[in-house]
Amino acid sequence: MNLKSNQIEIKRSPEFIYTYLTDLNRLQHALPQQVINFRVEGDACSFTIQGMADISLLISVKQPNSKVVYSNANDKPFPFSLFVDILPANENSSMVSVGFEAKTNPFLTGILKNPMENFVNLMVQKLNEI
Fold it and tell me: Residue 49 contacts by C-beta under 8 Å, 6 or more apart in sequence?
């Protein structure tokens, strides 16, 4: 399953957004309200998505000022990656999109598609509020 949010313009520099996203203590503010029990340990964090699952993420890719990829630390409930693409729009703004890639069976894909589309769209909107 591959999902991607709409790309939106955020009135922050790519450097600011990248720095924000690689500080896991700040990441919680970019996640939807359904995320509870958020904890950070180094380059990893864990949280619960209400009504769905407990998630453990680690930063697996850092491309300065252009991309951050979070992968689930233990492949539970299934292997996935959450990524944020950052492109410069002008001096003080960026074009940002959030994506989700997962290895799931067709049944699970059908169940997860709508909630995860909502999740990535909410996350990009929350990033716009930082």
Answer: 34, 35, 55, 119
| Strand partners of residue 10 | 94
Name the token pair of 78. Answer: 């299934």
Domains of the chain: 2-128 (3.30.530.20)
The 10s digit of each residue's pLDDT in 78-102 is: 899 999 999 999 889 999 999 999 9
The DSSP call for residue 76 is -
Q: How confident is the model at residue 104 (pLDDT cuts 50, 70, 90)?
A: very high
Residue 53 β-bridge partners: 49
Confidence band, pLDDT 50/70/90 cuts, at residue 50: confident
Q: Token pair 């919680």 is at which residue? A: 28
Instruction: Determine the Cα–Cα distance for residues 50 and 61; give it in Å rounded to an integer.
Output: 26
Work out the angle at residue 64's Cα, subtended by the Cα atoms of residues 14 and 56, and round it to the nearest 5 degrees.
100
Q: What pTM was estimated for this model as a whole?
A: 0.91
Provide the percentage of residues in the chain whose pLDDT is more than 90.
72
What pairing do the DSSP bridges indicate for beta strands 8-10 and 35-41?
unpaired
